[in-house]
UniProtKB/TrEMBL annotation:
<dbReference type="InterPro" id="IPR029139">
    <property type="entry name" value="QueF_N"/>
</dbReference>
<keyword id="KW-0671">Queuosine biosynthesis</keyword>
<comment type="subunit">
    <text>Homodimer.</text>
</comment>
<feature type="binding site">
    <location>
        <begin position="87"/>
        <end position="88"/>
    </location>
    <ligand>
        <name>NADPH</name>
    </ligand>
</feature>
<keyword id="KW-0963">Cytoplasm</keyword>
<dbReference type="GO" id="GO:0033739">
    <property type="term" value="F:preQ1 synthase activity"/>
</dbReference>
<feature type="active site" description="Proton donor">
    <location>
        <position position="199"/>
    </location>
</feature>
<keyword id="KW-0521">NADP</keyword>
<feature type="binding site">
    <location>
        <begin position="231"/>
        <end position="232"/>
    </location>
    <ligand>
        <name>substrate</name>
    </ligand>
</feature>
<protein>
    <recommendedName>
        <fullName>NADPH-dependent 7-cyano-7-deazaguanine reductase</fullName>
        <ecNumber>1.7.1.13</ecNumber>
    </recommendedName>
</protein>
<dbReference type="InterPro" id="IPR043133">
    <property type="entry name" value="GTP-CH-I_C/QueF"/>
</dbReference>
<feature type="binding site">
    <location>
        <begin position="85"/>
        <end position="87"/>
    </location>
    <ligand>
        <name>substrate</name>
    </ligand>
</feature>
<feature type="binding site">
    <location>
        <begin position="260"/>
        <end position="261"/>
    </location>
    <ligand>
        <name>NADPH</name>
    </ligand>
</feature>
<comment type="similarity">
    <text>Belongs to the GTP cyclohydrolase I family. QueF type 2 subfamily.</text>
</comment>
<keyword id="KW-0560">Oxidoreductase</keyword>
<dbReference type="Pfam" id="PF14489">
    <property type="entry name" value="QueF"/>
</dbReference>
<dbReference type="InterPro" id="IPR050084">
    <property type="entry name" value="NADPH_dep_7-cyano-7-deazaG_red"/>
</dbReference>
Amino acid sequence: MSDTSAQPEHSPLGKASAYVDQYDASLLFPLPRLTKRAEIGLPGAIPFLGADLWTAFELSWLNLRGKPQVALAHVTIPCETPNIVESKSFKLYLNSFNNSRFADAAEVLARLRSDIGEAVWRGSATPGSVGVKLLSPEQFDREAVHELDGLSLDRLDIECTHYTPAPELLRADTTQAPVTEVLTSNLLKSNCLVTGQPDWGSVRIAYSGHQIDQEGLLQYLVSFRNHNEFHEQCVERIYMDIWTRCQPTKLTVYARYTRRGGLDINPIRTSHPQPLPGNVRTARQ
């Protein structure tokens, strides 16, 4: 039986929230992945690998003498976790560090790993870990800005008439020899599942197999424009629609969404083992 309290409508999202500036791990609000995965035909085992790459740009705490410290945090959450963390609760949780004293950055890092790991793996019979990396101010200027590599679909002069997901627009040419190519678009937009606020993103699709019709693929990506779903869920829907409709032999879908509340979320889903991309932001992030 599912936990009805762990649903988006019960999260802090879209509600007035008290500003808590003393460390409180209970502010993290996990949401089960299974609910939305069942909508795309995944009630059990998932047919992909990947992770959700988060960047926290607003992380601060006090040292033992009360002096503020700042850092950036890169967080890697495996897609095998039973839960995601609702993003506003993540922000409230990070805010709770603001006036809390810690011995050093290592203590902060340990708390982040433990708290986030517990939330996303909650309910798992075999809980795992999450990756967290802190960057000190001395490392900030090493943070690169780079656009997604690939052939831009946005160059195409197309007519768009669908603004809710239309997988029927996807098609592949089975009469020609298979290809391997990487396609990108900056036209991905969806809306928050709870508040309806816009989520802007760029997406990179790498595949091998029968050539996917590029105009249809771009029209399909545009069709998410009025769709209400969290970032992670949109990427999994895109992955499964392409996998089912175009039947590539290999597929990777990677999206980078613009930040909101000092956080960006960048899901990647892939059919085959490969190193995760570096968490490098795009110019819009």
